[in-house]
Amino acid sequence: MLSHATTRDWLIPYADGMLAVDERRRIDGHITGCPSCARELREVRELNLLLVTLPPAPPVAFAPFWLNLQAVLPHRRVLRIPGIAGYRRLGMAFAVAAIGVLAAGVSAFAAPSALPDNPLYPVKQLEESLRLELAPVNERLTIQLQLANERLREAQAMAGRQQPAWLPGDHR
Amino acid sequence: MAQSEEVPSTEGDAEERRLIDRSAAGDQEAFRQLVLRYHRLVINVAFRALGELALAEDVAQDVFIKVYKALPTYRHDKPFKHWLHRVAANTVTDSLRRRRPVISLDGLEQSLVSAGSDPQDVAARHDLQRAVRYAIASLPPHYRDTIALQAFGELSYDEIAKALDIPLGTVMSRLNGAKRLLRERLGDLVRPSEEANTA
């Protein structure tokens, strides 16, 4: 014969149908002679009835539900690993940028000493024009003197190489 | 015939796994198909918990957003459906707790069993169901999560054990504790009338 306390502990799984047949028989045996446990079992069943009779949802159309959901779904996690073509494009972009930076650097360093027959001489001329244009008015005379000295240096250098000190275009 | 019945299940599992993996990688079309499979289930859990369809749809949407965000951490060692049930139960009970009104249980003594189709009975039944929902929401978290899976998710003890990843004995113990507390909190609402006793 089960004790009163043990029976009460097992009433909920009993009402949920979770006990084995022999366990159920033992509970049944106690309940038939115990009005208090019988009343408690009725309360447990009343509660279960309340829980299982919570109504199910009416049918819901999927399309509007999905559209509403899709509108608020985060777009943050599209993990697209670039293929070979993607990597190739990325590599080309880096290569072009690197060549550009390198060329600009070489030009900036090499152009100031270029002579008229040097391919970088137009860069040198451009740099000088910009330097003159951007300089304050009171410094322009100084810069013009520097440029005149530079023309003289170029002429001497070209003469040292027995070449005329004028531009290749003028030579023709 | 027996073989042909097993094949779709395996294929279905593989297909679901593929949809999960693609959704985890951000493929919204794959996620749409997952939602198509489970939206009824989630809306039903939310509706049973909240009792209002518009609200249930909003909460179901929250559930799927959580799922979408958490999919990269999902492991296939437990069924997706159980994992989804757990997320749904947590989300709906959180929503219930946030919305918990002050409900007076006085005047709600009419039992659900005796409630008929009379408008007064219907109103009383709705109030009673609301009281039950909020009583569940007020339980301590380990009881609440367990009984929410039974009451709102309609899961068996075994399914609850799998969803929460706990032993069956723990499920029994938690449901026992949860229902004892619910009986205390619902008071006369779960005390059968003398008519019900004799019926």
Descriptive report:
The complex is a heterodimer of chains A (172) and B (199). In chain A, helix 1 packs across helix 2. Chain A has eight helices and no strands. The termini of chain A are far apart. Chain A is mainly α and 172 residues long. Chain A has helices at residues 4-15, 21-32, 35-52, 62-72, 84-110, 121-134, 137-160, 168-171. By secondary structure, chain B is mainly alpha-helical. Chain B is built from nine helices and no strands. In chain B, helix 2 packs across helix 4 (80-98). The longest helix of chain B is centred in the first third of the chain and has 23 residues, at 2-24. The radius of gyration of chain B is 19 Å and the shape is globular. Chain A binds chain B through residues 9, 12-13, 16, 18, 39, 42-44, 46-47, 49-58, 60, 62, 65-66, 68-70, 72-79, and chain B through 25-28, 31-32, 35-36, 39-40, 43-44, 46-49, 51, 53, 56-57, 60-61, 64-65, 68-69, 72, 111-113, 128-129, 132-133, 147, 150-152, 154, 157, 172, 175-176, 179-180, 182-183, 186, 189-192, 196-197.
